[in-house]
Design goal:
CATH topology: Endonuclease, Chain A
CATH superfamily: Endonuclease Chain A
Distance between the termini: 58 Å
Number of helices: 9
Number of strands: 8
Shape: globular
Mean pLDDT: 90
Order of helices and strands: HEHHEHHEHHEEEEHEH
Strand content: 15-25%
Strand order of the largest sheet: 1-7-6-5-2-3-4-8
Radius of gyration: 17 Å
CATH class: Alpha Beta
Largest sheet: 8 strands, mixed
Helix content: 40-55%
């Protein structure tokens, strides 16, 4: 790769810091994500630490934004509105959640049980393939960040202070390859729902 090609590839990537997003309003970020979802057909989500907004209950969504100052009612409403895309049968979603992401007590126990029911219900949608990775057995890899891949064009990687948007095809390919690796360890279908039900019962015990 030439120097010009390296410069062009680096320029295709974008860092979006949390502070700038707060200045323009969190609902603007929701609009941007909705546009990604409108333009894309296949989505892959690796969720090692918490549930994504597309799968979250209203209580979980509100809790996820509570660490930011200000009134987030518009952002919460937009986030919940975006969930309608899961019913678009022209699109395909694969979500992989670790046991930690599913069971982290982000809400009081009864509300967490409802959140797990929400995950199980979402897994039955025709456009959704939802897997969970239990914290048992041997797994020789460990996810460092939450990331999403839109088709094979864009990968977004989240940190506590912002989001990195990758458009360089090498970066996107690397995240696709990483996702494929985690997919091998995930439980899907009825096995995933059985595990979710078991974890949900523990929140109510």
């Amino acid at each position: 790769m030439t120097r010009d090609e390296r410069t062009e590839a680096a320029g295709a990537n974008e860092w979006q810091d949390t502070w700038s997003q707060l200045q323009v309003g969190l609902q603007q970020k929701q609009n941007e994500l909705a546009e990604f979802e409108r333009r894309s057909t296949e989505f892959r989500y690796l969720l090692p630490s918490m549930v994504t907004g597309l799968l979250a209950t209203p209580e979980y969504v509100a809790a996820s934004l509570s660490r930011f100052p200000g009134d987030h009612r518009e952002a919460i409403a937009k986030k919940l509105e975006r969930q309608a895309v899961l019913r678009d049968t022209s699109k395909r979603f694969t979500f992989i959640l670790t046991e930690q992401a599913v069971r982290w007590p982000y809400l009081p126990s009864p509300a967490m049980a409802v959140q797990l029911e929400r995950l199980a219900a979402a897994s039955l949608l025709p456009s959704v393939r939802l897997g969970v990775i239990p914290l048992s057995g041997h797994m020789p890899v460990a996810p460092l960040n939450t990331f999403t891949v839109y088709d094979d064009q864009i990968a977004t990687v989240e940190s506590s202070t912002g989001v990195m948007v990758f458009r360089d095809r090498r970066d996107v390919a690397a995240y696709l390859n990483e996702f494929d690796g985690y997919e091998e360890y995930a439980l899907f279908g009825e096995k995933a729902r059985e595990r979710l039900a078991s974890w949900g019962r523990q929140f109510l015990s």
